[in-house]
Amino acid sequence: MEVIGDRLRLRQVIDNLLANVRAHTPPGTTTAVRVEREGDEAVLQVTDDGPGLSDEQAALAFERFYRADPSRSRDSGGSGLGLSIVTAIVSSAGGTASAGRGPQGGAEFTIRLPVSPG
User: Fold this and answer.
1) In the chain, where are the structural domains located?
2) What is the 3-state secondary structure (H, E, C) of the chain?
3) How far apart, in whole angstroms, are the C-alpha atoms of residue 29 and residue 57?
4) Across-strand partners of 47?
5) What is the C-alpha separation between 85 and 24, in angstroms, rounded?
6) Beta-bridge mates of residue 109
7) Tell me: the pLDDT tens digits for 19-69?
8) CA 89, 20, 61, 69 torsion: positive or negative?
9) Is the pLDDT at 78 greater than 90, yes or no?
10) Which residues contact 41 (CB under 8 A, 6 or more apart)?
11) Global confidence as pTM
C-alpha cells in the first residue's frame, strides 16, 4: 500500500506524533502504532495508555501554539507547533488528522491518507 505525499514530510508526521507521546506521558507508558488500509484510505493510529486528553484538549490539539498543559513553558514543553505541523502535512496530502481517547483511556491520534491509485 502506498499513500500520496512527500516521504520525508510523512516521516515527520510519525516523528512528531511519537515525540508528542514522549513529551506528554509518564515514563513506562505503553504506546502502539498501527497502520492498516480501510477502503481507499491508509489509517495510521498512535495510541498510548497515558493520562489521555479531555474532549476540549482533543478539539484543540492541532491548533498552532496550543499546549494541553498550560504549566509547561516553551523552554520545557516545546513550541506548541508539532501537531499543527502534523495536520498541515496531512492536509496537503489530502488526508485528515484527529485526536481523542484511546480504547485504554489514553490518547489516540488518527491520520487518514488517500491510498495511491494503482
Assistant:
1) 7-114
2) CCECCCHHHHHHHHHHHHHHHHHHCCCCCCEEEEEEEECCEEEEEEEECCCCCCHHHHHHCCCCCCCCCCCCCHHHHCCCCHHHHHHHHHHHCCCEEEEEECCCCCEEEEEEEEECCC
3) 19
4) 32, 108
5) 17
6) 46, 99
7) 988 888 899 999 999 999 999 999 999 999 988 888 888 887 878 766 665
8) negative
9) no
10) 95, 112, 113, 114, 115
11) 0.85
116 close to 2: Cβ distance less than 8 angstroms: yes
For residue 75, which phi and psi values (nearest 5 degrees)? -65, -35
Cell of 89: 502535512
Q: Which three cell numbers mark 7?
A: 516521504
CA distances from 55 to 7, 108, 109 (A): 31, 12, 13
Q: Is the distance from CB of 24 to CB of 49 less than 8 angstroms?
A: no
Q: Is there a contact between 110 and 90 (Cβ–Cβ < 8 Å)?
A: no
* CATH class label, 7-114: alpha beta
